[in-house]
Design brief:
Blueprint (H helix, E strand, L loop, with lengths): L1 H7 L8 E5 L4 E8 L2 E6 H10 L20
Antiparallel strand pairs: 1-2, 2-3
Length: 71
């Protein structure tokens, strides 16, 4: 993870995209890793990241058309 920060010059070493997780209007974080792409419940992933001392930032994309199911 630190290698990513060093090579990109960013203070962040990881990104995820929040996506809907039907059927109960929950949210997952879609993440890519060396093992593939995974959808992880957002509450579990945030707890894990914060407990590990991660720095977390949230940004909503503006000007992006969203499908009705994704609003």
């Amino acid at each position: 993870a630190n290698l990513v920060s060093l090579s990109t010059g960013s203070k962040y070493d990881h990104i995820g995209i929040v996506v809907p997780a039907p059927p109960h209007d929950k949210r997952n974080v879609l993440e890519a890793s060396r093992r593939g792409c995974f959808g992880i419940p957002i509450d579990e992933r945030l707890k894990s990241a914060l407990n590990a001392g991660a720095r977390v930032a949230v940004r909503r994309l503006v000007g992006v058309e969203r499908s009705e199911w994704c609003k």
